[in-house]
Every structure is written in C-alpha cells, then in structure tokens.
Amino acid sequence: MNIVCIAAAEWHGMWARAQQLMVRLAVQGHNILYVDPPITYIAPLKNPILWKRRWREKKGLQTMEPVEYENGSSDGRLHRESGQIYLFKPPLFLPFHGMKRTINRKNQEIFARKLVEALDELNWSKPLLWTYLPGTCDFINASESIKWSSVIYDCVDDHGAFTGLHDPQAMQEMENELARNAHVVFASARALQEKMEKVRRDVHLVPNGADVEHFRRPHQDTIQMPLSPQKPPLDLPQNNKGLIGFVGGLGDWIDIELLAKVARYRRDYDLVIIGPVETDIRPLQGLENVYLLGRKPYQELPAYVQRFQVCLSPFKLNELTRSVNPVKIYEYLAAGCAVVSTALPEVVPFEPTIAVGRNHLEFLRHIDAALEQDSPEKRAERVALAEEHAWESRLNQMWQAIEKTL
C-alpha cells in the first residue's frame, strides 16, 4: 500500500514510534510518505536552532536513501526495505493553530494543497492516512480530493497537557473529532486509551516497543559480557569512571533536579546525557561529572547505551507523563542494561526487572543496588523481556486491526 504518515517527530530527529513502524511497513513492501511535523513563523522564540535548520531545508518532497534495517530474524543479518520511503517537509504554519480552530483550518488547507501536489507527483491513489497530530482533523476535511483508503489515528501523547501556545480545550475538541472520523484508533498507554474511549469504545491499546536487534546486536553473542567488545565512542568520558546514562530529549517533563542529584550523589560515576536540550538545565551546570553529548544518530545509540552500567528514566510525575510509555525503557532493556525509573504508570508493571523509585531518595538507592547487584543472568533476563515487546509484534497487532477496514 501507499501510506502517508503525518508524524509528531522529525524523521531525522530522535527515533520513536512513528519511524520504527514506518520502516517496518516499508520492509513489508509498502511505500511510505513520512511528513515531518510543521513549525510556525514564530518558532525562533522557542527553538532558534530548529528554525535555522528548517528554514534552510528544502520544502516539499524528497526521496530517502534505502534504509538498512535488522528484520528481527535469528541470523541478525541486515536486510534492505523493499518499499520506498519519501520525506515531505510541510510549509511553515501560521502561529497559534493550537489555540484557534480558524487558524488551524487555514494551515491545514495550505498543507493539503501542497500534499496533493506531492501525491500527484508520486502518482499515488487511495493512500492510507496514518496520523499522530490532532490538528489533522481539519486536514482530512481540506483534503477531500484524496480518497483515503483508511484513516488511522495513533494516539501517543496527551496533547492538551503539553505546555506552550495551545488551548487544551481546543486541542481536545480537535482530537475527539479526529478519533470519531478515523477508521482505527490506537493508544500507546492505558491513560490514553481511557481518554479516547470517551469518544469511541473500540480503541486498541498498543504500547511502545524496542528495536531489539539494533540495541543488542553488537554483543548478542557475548551477552554475559558487561560491556560491548567494540571500541567506545570517542566523546564518552575517558577517566575510567563507571557510566550512568540517559537517552532522550531534555524537556520540561524530565526531572532535571533529580538528574543533578544523581550526579552529586554518585560522584564516582559519570552521568552521560544523550539528546537535545529543550528546557532549563541550570541544576546540571557546573557539575564536573555531567556530560551533555547532544543528539546522536540512531544507528550510533547502541554503542553508547551498552556502556552504561545503569540507564535512567527520570520523568516528572504529572498529567502529561501519566500517559507516557517511554520507548527508551524498552531500548535500555534490549541492550541488557539495568534500568531505574520514576513511578510512571506504564513502567510500574515492569517491576522488579525495572527498579522504580517513588521518590528521589528511593531512586538514588535503586541506582546503588543496580550498580552492586548486576549480573550476566540479569542482563539476559532484561533482553528476554525486551523481546516480548519488539516492534515487529506491535506492528502485527496494529495491522490486523487495520486490515479489517480495507
């Protein structure tokens, strides 16, 4: 099939659910048009770096290079996808589209015209629409000339709970309309499923997963080794201390003060943070054992994660994170790493394989225990748990529901 995916994360950004699913659909022979999320004309006020990069980028349709992908087979060999992936950069949006429905409609009308041109260029007819953004409820109305074979809404965030320039009520109204008009609705967390079930009863719960082969491959034949035998990345600390790690964006949903406490509490270890900085990190500044390495390409992440003695999931506990199902915990487990997390509802069921700290002191004590009690047997147990939550099985579950609508 031809699939248009309107994503909430950039294709070249931090890899998450949308990219993982679309790559696997391409492996199965489907063609993918991946649409990066839009930015507005006032984006520099929030993220000047994003603005500069997106302003210079070519808008419209791009053909992606073939993607190498581990297909989950036992031989661990790389296989190239048989479908083609295209990338679409949408036009700049007018600001406040998350607050005013009239502005969102205008933006979606402009976006729809540009996307219709891209689909004409590709000569696609009756594509499937797979969306992650509530505002696309107006895109569906604006793209009436496109005869969608099916409309899929994959709900992975509580959009109304984000901070920023949006009206929670307006966002909820748009999301409800999208859910009502979609042929299939998925939810990545129980809280999201319960929220969407207020609109329709047939919401499918499909949690996030792991690219198991990707994160375990460098040492899958030497799982009893505490570290990958490959040489460490050059920007990791070279002072022979142990490593405690976090992979993910530093947004206002991350407990920065907790990370600072970890660094101060375990000065005999280095705290390595991989991901973009999008919030105030002053509590971390000036701490000599904190290393902010920035965003790393997805293909390079296992080389870092496999060298962490403990991996952290330090989310704040609030309305937004109540519905978060962190991809990172599955990836940590796939690498065989010990994981310490705050008490997210979606993580608590993984106790005791994942240590859950219900306050800062308990979180720190779990780090101590993980450092002292790790073993080859526990690493193998974590990888086995990750295998139960592989993206391949998630996609199979989703596609079974989708096929009934085609």
TrEMBL record:
Q: Which UniProt keywords apply?
A: Transferase
Would you indicate the residue range of the signal peptide?
none
The parts of the chain that form a coiled coil are: none
- Tell me if Transferase is a UniProt keyword of this record: yes
GO MF terms, alphabetically ordered: transferase activity
Q: Which Pfam families does this one have? A: Glyco_trans_1_4
* UniProt xrefs under Gene3D superfamilies: 3.40.50.11010, Glycogen Phosphorylase B
Q: Which domain of life is it from?
A: Bacteria
Instruction: Tell me what this protein is called.
Output: Glycosyltransferase family 1 protein
Per the UniProt record, the lineage of the source organism begins with:
Bacteria, Bacillati, Bacillota, Clostridia, Eubacteriales
